[in-house]
Amino acid sequence: MTNSGNQEAARAFAGAFAEALQQELTRTAGRPWQVKVPDSPDLNTRQGQPIHYRLTLDGALRGLLFIELYEQQVKELVSKISGEVVSAFDQERGNDLGELILAAGIELSASLAAQRGAFTCAVEVAHELSLGSMLPIPLSVFEADEPPMAFTLYFEGQLLSALAGPPQAAASPGRPKAALDPLNLDLVLDVELNVSLRFGQRQLPLHEVLELVSGSVVELDRQVDDPVELLLDGKVIARGEAVIVDGNYGLRVTEIPQPIATHLTR
Fold first, then answer.
1. What pTM, to 2 d.p., does this model score?
2. Direct distance between the N- and C-terminal alpha carbons of the chain, in angstroms, rounded to an integer
């Protein structure tokens, strides 16, 4: 899909999320709130350190959506909806806002179920993010005549691809679904599987392997900007880019060559 198509799909999804967040803010605060998708962000309301929440979608829609706001906004928002003066951002306040975002995600799932199919949402605070490759969509959040607060939604590649594709409900009724019943997957969904990341590989003759010592450099067959592969039982099930999450290596998935379930039916 073109960049303009991605932008259109992301803005439509952002509009649905804005409606869900508006409902939850209004319900929690007990008075009307407004959440809009403006044409451009208001950078003047950004004060303090950025705070990021990761919204993980799974099911008919899969992928990651990151919500960015700033420390001062969190304090003002929690103060308004709780009726208490919040002078400092801490884990408790972060959890309060995370619960509100989760409730909005659940509302979003319910509102899009008929169009997109069922999906679940999970929310957590995210750290050490690299948002440069994601598509940003601004949100404007405000109460009555109060100055708006600028949020930003960041869409990663997998979610954009899912939004760009045909909705599940609109798929051809004659299209066959993956036949998973013979495996009765419901009985083994909690079984843990070992997956591994492959940054590249190289074939070496035995004498070169025996000559390896500390400090030896082995050149791999993959360029620095090539995607990293995620392997399950030696098969590539996803590709993406390596990231650092809380000091550990991780993988931000950007491509799934084919539905993962098909690897389990063979």
1. 0.61
2. 31
